[in-house]
Amino acid sequence: MGIILNLAVTAGALGIAIWIIDGLTFTGTWWQYVIVVVILGLANFIVKPILRLLSLPIILVTLGLFLVVVNALVLQLVVWLSGVWDLGFASTGFFWATFLGAIVLSIASWLLGIFAPDGDT
Prior knowledge:
Elements: H1 2-20, E1 24-26, H2 30-54, H3 56-61, H4 66-84, E2 89-91, H5 94-115
Antiparallel strand pairs: 1-2
């Protein structure tokens, strides 16, 4: 049940990021949105730890601020894969739309995760 809840939180956070950031758009159907969310979840699970490990010296020097760039790179990978598979998720530019989208996605995921039940009760 934790995976489904995690994907629901990610779907909500991605929806908030698309709604707030003008450069992020989604023009597909609901099942394409589900595929984009699954791709984002897999990218966060597989690619993000590898990027964190490879960029650890930069993360330490910048006191963790480079993690925003890592999040933006993961989001840009999802945008690129969505374009390859014609899923309808797009970004107008890496620096502003994807970078700001990654910040909003992180904050929204954190906020939605606070209100999601954790299953410990």
